Amino acid sequence: MQVDTVCRLCSSCCPITAHVEQGRIVAAKRKTSLPPDKAWLCPKLEASADIVYSPARLRHPLIRQADNSYLEASWDEALDLVASRLLQCRQQHGAETVAWLRGMAADWGAPWDYVNRLMNAFGSPNSIGNGSVCHVAREMAHNYTYGAMTIPQIQKSDCIVIWGKNDQHTNPPAYDAIMQARERGARLIVVDPVRTGLAAMADIWLQIKPAHDGPLAMAMIDQIIRCGWYDTEFVAQWTTGFEDLRQAAAFYRAEDIAEQLSLHPADIQAASQLYAQSETACIIDGNGLDMQFEVFDATRAVAMLRALSGNLDRAGGDLIPQPVKARNIQLKECLPKDRCPVTSDYPLFSTFHHNWGLHAQSCVVDAILEGKPYPINSLVVQSGNPAVTMTDSTRVNQALSQLDFLVVIDLFMTRTALHADVILPACSCFEKTQLNRAYLRHSLVVLQNQVVEPLHNSWPDWKIIFELGRRLGLKDEFPWKCVEEAIDYQLEPSGVTVAALREEPEGIRTAPLEHQKYREKGFATPSGKVEFASERLQKAGFSAVPFADGRFDNPISFAGQADDYPLIGISGARSSCFTHSQFHHVPMLRQQESCPTVDIHPNDAKNLDISNGDQVELTSPRGRITLTGRIDRDMKPGTVRIAWGWGENEPSANLNNLTDDYRRNPITGTPSNRSFMCRLRKLQRHP
Ligand SMILES: Nc1nc2c(c(=O)[nH]1)N[C@H]1C(S)=C(S)[C@@H](COP(=O)(O)OP(=O)(O)OC[C@H]3O[C@@H](n4cnc5c(=O)[nH]c(N)nc54)[C@H](O)[C@@H]3O)O[C@H]1N2
Ligand SMILES: Nc1nc2c(c(=O)[nH]1)N[C@H]1C(S)=C(S)[C@@H](COP(=O)(O)OP(=O)(O)OC[C@H]3O[C@@H](n4cnc5c(=O)[nH]c(N)nc54)[C@H](O)[C@@H]3O)O[C@H]1N2
Ligand code: SF4
Ligand SMILES: [Mo]
């Protein structure tokens, strides 16, 4: 039997066909417009059966005993215990001292709305995601500039800028589209400190110094304005603050600043010209820009390039999405107006969008450890592994161990779950039906369909939330008997139903693809125009224009300690075999990527007397880790790239033992855990 669904083993949400025999998944194939020999194979999907049927899967709810052992429990026992402890916490300390922390696998769509609904009805505003280190800080920058996060129209573009993104390993559908565009002659500009596969095939590769993307974007803006390569008509009619932007960008003349970015002025000029003078051009921005201290202004400046060049909401440019009309089911109105969340230091980030919710994730740790702005006593962690993936793991683990009560909802016994009082076994993405954010943010809806029955005694997340809600006295808020009913209720305004989606496995389009919608509706900003200068930011005490004062602070963590920590550590690479801390236990994937590595340029390796395969130690002011050294010409001299996500299975290689969570972006609370100063030394010669 074949089942059409959406894979959710990572956030790419690829449409796939799963092959099922006798109730078991035996294989799964990604749908692609490329011929099979040209499509990029996803190793995680190839290993999907090994992931689903892994012997390490949690089988039953577990409750911690007085001697710290875990006892198997029924769902009734476990959920009754969770509900009674959360109600007790609310009664003793207040509803807001209960928080819910969600990770990548929780998606940012309908499944999140269920949790927000539960927490709002319960009375706590503290339902918090990890968007401060993922794309949500960037999403806010797009939003503040032109009202929504754009979607690059790769297929029809003449020039594709790939800025801090590595789609070859992180987003196969986008990679397929880039390859197709290349075949019909599209030009490629890549901004990346590392010579990735995409950088190697680029027409122009800007090997930027890590974390210096903001000044580069400003230099490109300056070049484009000075040479008159911008879309004068669009700028005159549809933007505000052009003169302010022009003045700010003039501080960043390519000739003056290129050296500080370790680039050549001629390359910045050539990239600016190719981008601005191509008939159509789009920018794919990525996580290389996120997790940086300057994430907000840097991604705002990149967003402004789209408007300046006239590519905004144009075919082959960057599309303003048309979200699916869905009901807001979060019940925010249930919260008392004066109940402030623990993210109150970042009010603009907490409110920039009506259904994004809260994402300054570090605030949860502040609240637990420092009682700031007030203590959190009980926490539910769902679909995330903060003990490994959050910045400054030592601090996070200390926080997790100090809670009065911790619940973890996961498929596996993670390092986070080791701190838990109650562990609830969740289904994998193939065992449940779900509606993903990727398919709500733009008009084409594709359903994630259940492929096989839940394994062991695991439950889908929706069921866990609905059943917990009922035990918290919220029967009326969770009236749905199955997830299909809940999805139908949420999608009702769009006219789309689960039944119809199952009839149309390729998806249902809820609005025709349209460009230049602003001509009728304007942009969803306070002025209705693209805001090069933002009054909202100015009123809140921030600079209206990005990098307005010509500032050039070093945004890299521990920059002041460069004498002792002379190398720049880049957090990455993401391997196509793993999703963050996940799947390192799967033998088929470990055969492809056997151990955690650090990539070192040959010059640095020579200075440190390091050869391929040596055991090396990396140290930052926060801690130390050990890895296998790998000599790599694609690295930038003076930078080392550290394999991401190994801390779950190889705790001595946990990258976040090195990262800093004290210095954060003042708007989004983003720490600089993508780039930090560190020191490298050889431990043991490779035998
Ligand atoms: N230094 C550094 N820090 C980073 C990053 C980095 O590159 N460098 N990346 C950042 C980014 S972009 C992100 S998004 C975060 C990711 O941070 P996390 O979201 O914590 O990442 P994962 O390791 O993917 O954790 C997901 C967990 O959910 C479980 N899971 C999988 N599917 C399901 C499901 O359907 N239901 C439930 N209940 N659980 C499920 C998995 O077993 C796993 O334990 O990390 C961030 N932190
Ligand atoms: N296989 C796999 N796929 C995934 C994930 C995964 O863990 N594994 N995670 C998913 C998630 S949650 C996310 S957020 C996405 C992220 O996916 P991407 O946005 O592609 O993120 P990365 O691959 O971490 O980094 C992208 C590129 O940024 C570069 N980079 C590093 N520092 C800088 C810098 O300072 N400036 C610039 N310009 N570039 C820099 C890196 O060298 C890398 O090539 O991937 C998703 N897909
Ligand atoms: S990239 Fe691979 S793991 Fe991620 S959603 Fe697509 S098929 Fe699944
Ligand atoms: Mo992410």
Automatic annotation (TrEMBL):
Keyword flag Nucleotide-binding: no
Cofactor(s) for this UniProt protein: Mo-bis(molybdopterin guanine dinucleotide)
4Fe-4S Mo/W bis-MGD-type domain ranges (all copies): 1-56
PROSITE patterns according to UniProt: 4FE4S_MOW_BIS_MGD, MOLYBDOPTERIN_PROK_1, MOLYBDOPTERIN_PROK_2
Residue spans crossing the bilayer: none
Source organism superkingdom: Bacteria
Keywords: 4Fe-4S, Iron, Iron-sulfur, Metal-binding, Molybdenum, Oxidoreductase
One Gene Ontology MF term: molybdopterin cofactor binding
InterPro entries: Asp_de-COase-like_dom_sf, MoPterin_dinucl-bd_dom, Mopterin_OxRdtase, Mopterin_OxRdtase_4Fe-4S_dom, Mopterin_OxRdtase_prok_CS, MopterinOxRdtase_cofactor_BS, Prok_Mopterin_Oxidored
PANTHER family registered for this protein in UniProt: OXIDOREDUCTASE YYAE-RELATED (PTHR43742:SF6), TRIMETHYLAMINE-N-OXIDE REDUCTASE (PTHR43742)
Family: Belongs to the prokaryotic molybdopterin-containing oxidoreductase family.
Name of this chain's protein: Formate dehydrogenase
Organism: Syntrophotalea acetylenivorans
